[in-house]
Automatic annotation (TrEMBL):
Signal peptide: none
Molecular function as annotated in GO: beta-glucosidase activity; thioglucosidase activity
Function comment: Degradation of glucosinolates (glucose residue linked by a thioglucoside bound to an amino acid derivative) to glucose, sulfate and any of the products: thiocyanates, isothiocyanates, nitriles, epithionitriles or oxazolidine-2-thiones.
Residue stretches in coiled coil: none
Annotated localization: Vacuole
Record flagged with keyword Membrane: no
Name under which the protein is recorded: thioglucosidase
Species, as recorded: Brassica oleracea var. oleracea
GO annotation, biological process: carbohydrate metabolic process
Key words, A-Z: Vacuole
Length: 144
């Protein structure tokens, strides 16, 4: 991180480093919204764009590669339905940090507000039900 971010990296005082080293993490909260294809711009050529800059870690985020998208696009134009990405993230976390419990603190279906939508329609949206069902199945698979 020091090599990539240099002076943009937050510096800790010696006593702050000691506090962090001796502290215990009680849990990790996860806000999870979408998945992307990622290109490592340290070893792969990347066009300038979102993620290709030093402060963003030299990783280019893509929602499609050629004609292949990372999942179904929904009303919010940056959010895709891709439960497999959620499961992969959970698997990574449980393998990387096996002693730290984690909680999904936010996971939602991005829906644009439409003034004409009735409460009944909001409560019975098939796409939202399908979305949540897919992500709950991914969560269950990761827990197994």
């Amino acid at each position: 991180m020091v090599n990539i971010l240099g002076t943009a990296l937050l510096r800790f005082l010696t006593n702050e480093v000691n506090i962090l080293k001796n502290s215990r993490v009680y849990f990790t909260g996860i806000n999870r919204y979408t998945s992307y294809f990622i290109r490592d711009c340290l070893v792969s050529p990347c066009n300038t764009g979102s993620g290709a800059f030093k402060a963003e870690g030299f990783a280019l985020k893509l929602d499609r590669i050629g004609n292949v998208t990372i999942g179904e696009l929904i009303d919010v134009n940056w959010q895709h339905i891709y439960p497999e990405g959620f499961r992969k993230m959970l698997d990574y976390l449980k393998n990387r940090y096996p002693e730290i419990p984690f909680f999904i603190t936010e996971k939602r279906f991005g829906d644009l507000q439409k003034p004409e939508t009735t409460i009944k329609e909001l409560l019975h949206v098939a796409k939202r039900t399908q979305y949540m069902s897919g992500y709950l199945e991914a969560l269950q698979a990761a827990m197994r």
